[in-house]
Amino acid sequence: xxxxxxxxxxxxxxxxxxxxxxxxxxxxxxxxxxxxxxxxxxxxxxxxxxxxxxxxxxxxxxxxxxxxxxxxxxxxxxxxxxxxxxxxxxxxxxxxxxxxxxxxxxxxxxxxxxxxxxxxxxxxxxxxxxxxxxxxxxxxxxxxxxxxxxxxxxxx
Length: 156
Ligand code: ZN
Known about the structure:
Blueprint: H1 26-42, E1 46-48, E2 58-61, E3 69-79, E4 83-90, E5 93-103, E6 105-111, E7 117-123, H2 125-136, E8 146-149
Antiparallel strand pairs: 1-2, 2-3, 3-6, 4-5, 5-8, 6-7
This protein binds zinc ion.
Zinc ion binds at residues 90-92, 132, 136.
């Protein structure tokens, strides 16, 4: 278990398209454990593998403490027509916060660490986190979707 370095905006890794995981190897399991440590240390809601320099389709989301969701090869298979406009930030883009337009609810299909396929749904923050993290796997950052940045006096 280890805390990994989180790459920051400007690093080309964040703009690459990640490759699917074809086999759950000991290396992938170690990566999942290290990403968990890294997410917890950073106090984040989500983390994608490219943020720790690994171009694999893996993300973690933890909107409530103890509710860690590991998603391998995640795909959004359903999104609500209803849209939310809420504040987003990113561990790779410190001290910037912007409003994005995201579906209010999404359903994601992914593989777990045992190789089993599962689906998980989320709304509000969880839906935003799924969308944000899965975007990372295609080299998309929340700043690409920001419709307005927060002014310093709007940040609590
Ligand atoms: Zn991010």
